[in-house]
Amino acid sequence: MDAIGVVEAALERDDPVELMDWILEFAGESGDRDLVETCCLRLARHRNAMVRGNAMLGLGHVARRFGRLDAHRVKRVIDNALHDGSAYVREQARSAAEDLRTFLDWEFDITDDESSDHAAQM
Q1: Which domain holds residue 89?
Q2: What's the domain count of the chain?
Q3: What gap in Å lies between CA 83 and CA 42, rounded to an integer?
Q4: C-alpha distances in angstroms, 90 versus 55, 73, 117, 119?
Q5: Do 51 and 19 meet the contact criterion of CB atoms below 8 Å apart?
Q6: Residue 94, Cβ neighbours under 10 Å: how many?
Q7: Residue 120 above 60 pLDDT?
Q8: Which pLDDT score is estimated for 121?
Q9: What are the CA-CA distances from residue 93 to residues 4, 14, 65, 90, 98 (Å)?
Q10: pLDDT recorded at residue 117
Q11: Considering the entire predicted model, what is its pTM?
């Protein structure tokens, strides 16, 4: 089975346990930047927070490995993930945003929602 067949099969099974590990492995090993980016962006909308968070990490891997991402497609996804309802997703989005700043010189407005919430309660 070719790479696209493997990708399609994993996405079709839609098993969160498989996908959260698979996307990190795929992002770290595949030589097809466009395909990895597309898969990460698709999984960034997954119902499972671990899958969404690991998709963010995958985007960071792509930035590090290939030195480019499609800004039009990726920036909005990272911005949205920085405000996700899941703390795990927000943390992985922060990590990805730092990678994109380091490797692509992109800027994001990274606010620490938890610190802001804590300060507001004081």
Answers
A1: 3-121
A2: 1
A3: 18
A4: 12, 18, 14, 18
A5: yes
A6: 18
A7: no
A8: 37
A9: 26, 22, 17, 5, 9
A10: 43
A11: 0.85
Rounded Cα gap, residues 56 and 109, in angstroms: 16
Instruction: Please check the confidence at residue 28 and state whether its pLDDT lies above 50.
Output: yes
Task: Please indicate whether residue 119 or residue 23 has the higher confidence score (pLDDT).
Answer: 23
How far apart are alpha carbons 4 and 32 in whole angstroms? 10
Rama region for 106: left / alpha / beta (φ>0; ψ in -120 to 50; rest): beta
pLDDT tens for 30-61 read: 999 999 999 999 999 999 999 999 999 999 99
CA 60 to CA 69: how far, in whole Å? 10
User: Which H, E and C letters describe 52-107, residue by residue?
Assistant: HHHHHHHHHHHHHHHCCCCHHHHHHHHHHHCCCCCHHHHHHHHHHHHHHHHHHCCC
